[in-house]
Amino acid sequence: MPQLVIALIITVLVIISFSVQVIPLPLTAMLGALAMVVFGIIEPADAISAFGSDTVMMVAGVIIIGNAIFETGLAEKLGASILNLPIIGGKEKRLLLIVMIIITVLSAFVSNTAAVAMFLPLVASIAQSSNGKIKKKNCYMAMGIASVVGGFCTQSGSTPQMVAQEILLETDGLRGLTFFELTKIGVLIAIVMFIYFLTVGYRLQERCFNFPEVPNTSTTQQTVSQSTWKQVVSGLILVGCVIGFISGVLSFGIISLLGACACILTGCISQKRVFETMDWSTIIVLGGSIGFANGMEESGAVNLIGDALVNSFGQNGENVLLVFGMIILLTALLSNVMSNTATVAVLAPLGINVALKMGADPITFVIGIIIASNLAFATPIGTPPMTMVLIGGYRFSDYVKVGGLFNIIAVVVTIFAVPLLYGF
Hints:
Elements: H1 3-20, H2 25-38, H3 44-48, H4 54-72, H5 74-83, H6 92-107, H7 112-129, H8 140-151, H9 159-170, H10 183-198, H11 200-208, H12 224-247, H13 252-265, H14 271-277, H15 280-299, H16 301-313, H17 320-335, H18 340-358, H19 362-374, H20 384-388, H21 396-422
GO biological process, one term: transmembrane transport
Membrane topology: Multi-pass membrane protein
InterPro entries: Cit_transptr-like_dom (IPR004680), DASS-Related_Transporters (IPR051679)
């Protein structure tokens, strides 16, 4: 049996397992990656290399820093201060909107993964100080989506557009994207997102997220007099990491791990508490999913789907919007089950090829593919921010219901708005 067929079968089985959750998400992600190895689709090293990736290191480091902030009591103090701001007034919707706006703007200029990572412990502390008025489960998923949307508002917010930029520059006769070229469509989708989570999305969350609130992994047990200096130290470490994220002097993973080590060395969190409070499920899901995505890419399964699309519709210049829409839909679907970076790396050349054959503007096709590759809200495995918010206690079905509906809305907006804003 051809490897690409085996890869497609494995993909279908993984999606089914993610959906029914008879097997835990981390185990499913690992089994998917290991199955790719067993059937010779990828090398063993490719299946586990993701656990040493910069993204996984960053997530692990930020979790340690966030837990250290809780251990010292700083998170609780900050949370209480923000909760008491007049503009919020203890209202969950107001807090959600403000946090989403901040994360969206921040994600446009720094890593979207870093942006959501900064706010997870902060929102957790606010929820802890609210006496049940504010729930993490009603904020985390929206925060993850906001970071992704903000990430594609500029050229530097997330990896897919950087990959696409390189592909454009390497293609004869094509120019690269300007820094703010994606801002028009990004802002439009951001506005739709704000409206969604203040109306339909918020009500959907209240109905679907019927599980108990996940408790914070760290609790402040020291007295204020004992831990005040540690609060200052943990705060300075967090600020230092943020500056490092923005400056780009080192990779995000290295900066996060340096911050985590600093927290341990200064006594903000003990080594024992590091292992007790680490969210191993998130780490395993992220690492396993990247390994699984490598198998999808190596097998040629994605290329098979793309070639079928070109052969069916790519020769008729009258069907530009139809073909564009199908490519956007294909990109969004694949991004929900494999790395969005891998998706754009495979489909951007396809989009350029199809556009040139049909006499359309390749830049418009690439912009659409960039946006669609980021629209991975229906599963926890498409983008790191959506994996990180798993700590809110979400089930796979929660992603499908709440994130999936917005995913559909955003795809429709992309299909029709990108041609209007950029032209064919």
